[in-house]
Design brief:
Elements: H1 2-52, H2 69-84
C-alpha cells in the first residue's frame, strides 16, 4: 500500500510539472501573439499623433510578422494620395 501511494505521489508530481510547463508555453505563445496585435496598434497611434502635430510625411512601418499589414499599406497609400493633392 505504501509503495502504491509513493508511486501515486510521483505521478501527481509529474502531472503537476507537465501542467506547469504547458501553462508556461501557452503564456509565452499568448504574449507573442498579443505583441503582434497590440504593437501595431500602438504604432498607429504614434503615427496619428505625429500627423495631428503637423508631420504629414509620417508613415506606418510594421514588423514583417505583425498584424494589420493591409491596414498599414492602405493608410500609407492614403497619406501619399493626400500629400499629392
Amino acid at each position: 500500500k505504501q509503495q502504491l501511494y509513493a508511486e501515486l505521489r510521483q505521478i501527481i508530481g509529474w502531472l503537476m510539472l507537465g501542467n506547469g510547463a504547458f501553462l508556461g508555453v501557452i503564456a509565452l505563445i499568448g504574449l507573442i501573439y498579443s505583441h503582434r496585435t497590440v504593437g501595431p496598434l500602438y504604432h498607429f497611434k504614434r503615427v496619428f499623433d505625429e500627423i495631428k502635430g503637423g508631420n504629414m510625411t509620417a508613415r506606418v512601418r510594421l514588423r514583417p510578422k505583425d498584424d494589420f499589414q493591409d491596414v498599414a499599406v492602405a493608410f500609407n497609400e492614403m497619406m501619399d494620395a493626400l500629400n499629392k493633392k
